[in-house]
Specification:
About 35% of the residues lie in helices and about 25% in strands. An eight-stranded mixed β-sheet has the order 1-2-4-3-5-6-7-8, sandwiched between helices. A two-stranded antiparallel ribbon has the order 9-10.
């Protein structure tokens, strides 16, 4: 297992990706981008990159906030995330910079997917939204949102989405209500996307993170949903990157 930190730029903003891959294999391979939750890229996302490397991909954990910008409390996390929620064009540009950096990596082939958790789930969906039939290197082959946020970017008419989409959702998630689920389903259907949604009953937000235990805020780890969702992701990646 080879891991490295890789600087990349979005205009004047320097970001630092965490990259993992099996160095015993010399050929290029598909990459899977990992979009971080609201606290910024950390051990959780880096562990996912390593697990994806074990599955035969290049795990490429993005850094959407910028090098060294991380939150250590709910208040700090919110302050880091909110500017990107308010300016989805800025978020889109930052995501595309990370995608471009992954494409330039010497071990990355011509297929790329993206996964994301919480705020990162929204990021993954935003990359799917710019992955149209004529997007070329600006798009991804597939996108997976784990307990993601579904707010549309509001950046004009949505083109047809060529990327396949998988949404892994806790049905009791207070940040993505059944009304929000219907809205994202309609959006993806109208965009002619190949999409699927797996909803886990009795499951809240952040169900993949063992460190989360705040049921009073609708944040709760769920080991069963975590295991099921990771397996669903593997099946999906095998389809879109195989």
């Amino acid at each position: 297992m080879h891991t490295e930190l890789l600087d990349y730029a979005d205009d004047k903003h320097i970001c630092e990706a965490f990259v993992a891959y099996d160095e015993t294999k010399k050929e290029k391979r598909p990459a899977v981008l990992i979009c971080h939750a609201w606290g910024g890229q950390g051990a959780f996302e880096q562990d996912k990159a390593k697990k994806l490397a074990e599955l035969g991909y290049v795990g490429f954990a993005l850094d959407n906030y910028g090098k060294g910008r991380r939150g250590s409390s709910m208040e700090e996390n919110g302050k880091l995330m909110q500017p990107f929620m308010d300016d989805r064009a800025m978020l889109r540009q930052r995501l595309l910079a990370g995608l471009a950096a992954a494409r330039k990596h010497p071990m990355v082939g011509n297929k790329i997917a993206v996964i994301g958790f919480c705020f990162g789930g929204l990021c993954a969906l935003d990359l799917a939204r710019v992955s149209g039939k004529n997007s070329g290197d600006k798009g991804v082959n597939g996108a997976v949102a784990f307990h993601g946020l579904f707010h549309p970017p509001g950046l004009g008419k949505q083109d047809e989405i060529a990327a396949k989409v998988l949404i892994l959702h806790g049905y009791d998630d207070p940040m993505a209500t059944p009304t929000d689920v219907l809205a994202i389903a309609k959006e993806l259907t109208d965009a002619k996307a190949d999409w699927q949604l797996h909803a886990y009953g009795h499951t809240s937000h952040a169900f993949t993170n063992p460190e989360v235990n705040m049921p009073e805020n609708g944040l709760q780890y769920n080991a069963t949903a975590d295991k099921r969702s990771w397996q669903s992701m593997q099946n999906f990646l095998s389809e879109v990157l195989g």
